[in-house]
Amino acid sequence: MVAVKPQDWSMIRGDTMSFNVEIEDLPQDLSSMIFTCRNVKKDEIIFQKTLGDGCMKISQGKYQVRVAPEDTEDISAGIYNFDLEIQWGTDRYTPVWGSLKIINDETY
Fold first, then answer.
1. CATH homologous superfamily of domain 5-103?
2. What confidence tier does 28 reach under pLDDT thresholds 50, 70, 90?
3. Domain range annotation of the chain
4. What are the pLDDT digits (tens) for 71-89?
5. Which of 10, 65, 76, 106 could form a disulfide with 101 if both were Cys (CB 3.0 to 4.6 A apart)?
6. Per-residue DSSP letters for the chain?
7. Which residues contact 27 (CB under 8 A, 6 or more apart)?
């Protein structure tokens, strides 16, 4: 039902990044969706996106996560960890996780 996909992504600091998550045969709407970007070395959350605040339902079983420019514009270039946790009922899954490389914007 939920595919597990480790990923390594890159994005320009201060840009928008979005991606879709499709869950086949979703028995009901998600009760929770949290996208977390963390600096593991400092054990701190850089930013989070949740349902209604960066995560939204597009259609049945299809959701979008949007990282806004203000989420990364003040972050130092580097490599951070991320994961996406979803939940419906008592079931909880982490279908996507990996590293997010933040690259300096050369056109500011």
1. Immunoglobulins (2.60.40.10)
2. confident
3. 5-103
4. 999 999 999 999 999 998 8
5. 10
6. ----EEEEEEEETTS-EEEEEE-TT-SS--SEEEEEEEETTTTEEEEEEEETBEEEEEETTEEEEEE-HHHHTTSPSEEEEEEEEEEETTEEEEEEEEEEEEE--S--
7. 88, 89
